[in-house]
Amino acid sequence: MLKDSFNRIHDYLRISLTDKCNLHCSYCNPVTAALKHLPHAQLMTAPEIETIASTFVKLGVKKIRLTGGEPLVRKDAAEIIRRLSEFPVELAITTNGVFVHQFIDTFKQASLQSVNVSLDSLNKEKCATVAGRNVFDRVWKNTCLLLDNGFHVKVNMVVMKGVNTDEILDFVELTRDLPLHIRFIEFMPFTGNRWDSRQVISYKEILQIISEEYDFIKLKDELHDTSKKFMVPGFKGTFAVISTMSLPFCGDCNRLRLTADGKMKNCLFSKSESDLLGALRRGEDIEPVIRKCVWDKKEVQGGQILTAYKKLDGMELKNRSMIHIGG
Question: From CA 158, how far away is CA 121, in angstroms rounded?
Answer without folding.
Answer: 9
